[in-house]
Amino acid sequence: MREKILLNDDWRLLVNPPETAIPVSKAAMYLSAKTERLKWGPGAYRHNDVPGFWDLEQELPAEPWEKVDLPHDYIIRQAPDPNEAGALGFFHYVPAWYRKHFTLAPEDANRRLTLYFEGINGISELYLNGCFLKRSTSSYVPFEVDITDLARFDRENVIAVYTDPRSFEGWWYAGGGIHRNVWLVKTAPLAVDLWGVFVPVRKETETSWRVPVEVTLRNIGYEAEEASLRCEILAPGGGKAGEILLSGTVPARDTATLRGETRVDSPLLWDLDAPHLYTLKVTVRRKDGETCDMVEQRFGFREIEMTPDRGLFLNGRHVKIKGVCAHQDFGLTGKAVPDNLCRYRVSLFREMGANAFRASHYPHPEATMEACDEQGLLVLDETRRYESNEEAVAQLEALVRRDRNHPSVFLWSTGNEEMAYHGMEQGHRIHRALEHVIRRLDPTRPVTTAITNVPDASVYAISEVIGVNYNLDQLDDLHRRFPEKPFVSSENCAVGSTRGWYWGDSPERGYMDARDFNPGPGTFQLFGRERTWKFFMERPWISGGFQWDAIEHRGEAIWPRLCSCSGALDLFLLKKEAFYQNQSHWLERPMIHLLPHWSHPGFEGMPVSVWAYTNCDEAELFLNGVSLGRKRVEKYLHVEWQVPYTPGKLEAVGYLDGLRAAGDVRETAGPGVKLALKLENGPVAAGGNEIALFTCSVLDAEGREVPDASPLVRFDCSGAGTILGTGSDNTDPVPVPSLDRRMYAGKIAVALRPGKADATGTAKVTLIARSESLRSAYLPVEFPAPAEK
Known about the structure:
mainly beta; 44 strands; 789 residues; six-stranded antiparallel sheet
């Protein structure tokens, strides 16, 4: 039967390998031109890659190999350098070798063996035991390599991966390394192929749904195989909701796709607040009745319609897209974002009120896609290359095959901001070619492309859904030109801000004011967050839009700032004011959020611009119990007061229909006296590749957080855990792995990886924070062993 084994542990890494001398003898040339190509250097089978090697009878390795676990990014460990490209995060990019030793049991000799890589940075070459496997040219597209014919069962096997991130697929932080999961997959010679199950459900009547099923089988044997399939539809609770029986012949060394159909009455629908997921369990049997494979594919019942006049409908209900874009990287781990952090990021999007995510500008990790299914977030899925060459088409095919069963995916995008080719005949041909690839593999969803060169992008005429980046001032005219087409703002609102900074823009410091602002006429984006949302809500024909972006990302930066600062969450997943502003637009429950903080010693009497973000219809401000005025809130906009700074208690109250509905308070903090630690995400499992995120803050004598605290804090941990990185100020050039970090705006983020669980079933870790003149803090945490699957 099928086994899928995670191969993330115990890899060996050599960064920026020295040039290897090439033997010039005939023997070297001759022998290296055979199946085992690599006979010398870091990719060769017998190469000594043992870190800290001690053996008096063998040659000692001259190279600085180190032990690492995946997912991994070796670029993020550097100190940013202002002489390097700001678009790429001010890092120096170099290649590396990864190696992994593993063994196979003798009984595996009769199985199909593959390696599945979810993502490797840049251009990579893969070898097994010195034999070439594959060359990959995308950092983000997953792929499978068959090692059945090359695997050894009489000795250990060695995977060698050369990765060179200097191909630079984008204008953002690229990272370096094997930044997503790696799996060893073992199946019978006859088995379901990679991404071989497709369940394109369709609503037939008010209560009845068609459930077509396609299952692609692969046969690596040298004789044709008769196969029979039992496809069971399992409801969210595990009960059986339907069954399809299929049979057919799979030719030798080939694939075959078997198709069938059934109906399901009154299924539980996948929706934003009730994301019900069904499972298709496929059992494969050979002619002799032997069960040879079993796979499970999740899917959902939902109906999506994009209309030209009323926007988007999900299951017959009108939904305005409250969307965010995001890159994959995280400030403390670079491009290597483990699965549990992918899920945590999605939970933050939902907490912010978002109901949609644009996977900009490439296929995102599988864990992110699964989290969007599980947490109820619509997805605009986008390919990286707006090209119709063989390589780009293969990458698009992989994206569609991988993601087409996700009920969260509602729209495909063929590209982003092709400012020349979106207006050229050649670009029209490319879009048609890519759209055809998508429709061949998934006829159930519409297709768009994200356009920014308005009004010159003549590709509008052939786009099924018109997706526009920014340029809101031209959308009304564009809609008059194409009234028959649905519209979506595929990207908008790249309004920069800095967490905790309220003193106007300071380019010298790299900071921007934390408040929203409108860039104004003559700019490509025109409005800030509130004016953008008001614009969408006043136009029912716009389906909604995707903010740039949810999270600050490295790159697209101007020194000394190390990242883009458009996010509603900062580089370290700490909430900015924009996070709460989005809540005021997107949440239905009454809320009000007050800014700035109210701890400004030495500024007594100075006027301070106090804002409230709220979805209430009135707001009132109190200072030390005295009302400073009750104001009507213009829908989707903020309210503000000019308040001479006086220490004490600042309180905002929101009213609906005259009744108090929400409140928020800011109190002046006293001098800091102690540090505090808090675990932000969870549960986090021990012994794997999950990461725990902590926040360190400073408290005064009354236990209030000191919002402008800036001590130097030293972090350590005892027990079964490792601190991977710390971060606070997105202008701080101190390398991420440093355990000493200057606090900015009252908070420091800490990333910790738990070790293996002990005999009690937990990994016990104590995180420690120390600073001069402040009481130290320690937080003991027990991380449970991962649950068995």
